[in-house]
Write a structure and sequence with these properties.
Layout (H helix, E strand, L loop, with lengths): L3 E6 L4 E4 L3 E8 L8 E3 L5 H9 L5 E4 L2 E14 L3 E8 L4 H12 L4 E13 L5 E14 L18 H20 L1
Parallel strand pairs: 4-9, 5-9
Antiparallel strand pairs: 1-8, 2-3, 3-7, 5-6, 6-7, 8-9
Length: about 180
C-alpha cells in the first residue's frame, strides 16, 4: 500500500519556541478529520516500537518531501490524547531557516503525518477507523486538514474567539459527517 498523508492544523496543539523548538500533537485520537478518518489510541504503538528497536526515528520533513529533511524529532510517542512530537528545526540548513521564518510570520502553521495503513475498518457512517499505522514522517506543511486552527508561534497567545472558531469548525464537520 502507498504512503498516505494526514494533515492537521493546530491551535493549542503545538508550540514553537526560540524559532526552532517545536512540540505538540501531530494526531489526536478519536477526532474525525476532513477525509473521514478517525485514528484510534494505540494505532502508532507497534510502529514506534519497531522504529526504536531498529534504532531509527520518525523523520521531520518539509511538505512531505523526502529530499528535504528540516529537523529532528527528539521525541515521538503516544499518550492518552494522541501522537505527541517534540523536536528541533535545524537552522543550520537553508530550508530550516526558511521554515522557522515562515512559522514566525504565520505563513506555515500545520503538521501532517506520512504513514501506511496497516489495519482499518469502515463504520456505518463510512468513516475509516484506523487501528494500526506505520508512521514514517511528520512534516511541516502549508495546507493542514483543520482549516480554522493554527500553530502559535513564540509570544503569541490564543484568545477565546480563536477557540470558539475551532469548536464551530469541528461541530460543522461533525454535522456534515452525520448527514452522510
Amino acid at each position: 500500500m502507498d504512503l498516505e498523508h494526514k494533515f492537521c492544523r493546530f491551535d493549542t496543539e503545538i508550540t514553537v519556541a526560540d524559532g526552532t523548538k517545536i512540540e505538540g500533537y501531530a494526531s489526536l485520537f478519536g477526532a474525525c478529520d476532513q477525509g473521514g478518518d478517525v485514528v484510534y489510541a494505540g494505532a502508532y504503538g507497534l510502529s514506534l516500537k519497531r522504529l526504536a528497536g531498529e534504532g531509527r526515528a520518525v523523520k521531520m520533513l518539509w511538505q512531505h518531501d523526502p529530499a528535504q529533511p528540516i529537523g529532528i524529532w527528539d521525541e515521538v510517542r503516544e499518550d492518552d490524547r494522541g501522537l505527541y512530537v517534540r523536536g528541533r528545526i535545524l537552522d543550520c540548513i537553508e530550508k530550516g531557516r526558511e521554515a522557522a521564518a515562515l512559522i514566525a510570520a504565520g505563513a506555515i502553521d500545520g503538521l501532517s503525518i506520512g504513514y501506511r495503513t496497516v489495519k482499518a475498518a469502515k463504520d456505518e457512517k463510512g468513516r475509516r477507523l484506523l487501528t494500526e499505522l506505520e508512521l514514517w514522517e511528520v512534516s511541516l506543511v502549508t495546507f493542514p486538514m483543520l482549516p480554522s486552527a493554527r500553530v502559535a508561534a513564540k509570544g503569541e497567545s490564543l484568545d477565546a474567539s480563536m477557540l470558539r472558531e475551532l469548536a464551530q469548525a469541528l461541530e460543522g464537520a461533525r454535522l456534515d459527517l452525520a448527514r452522510h
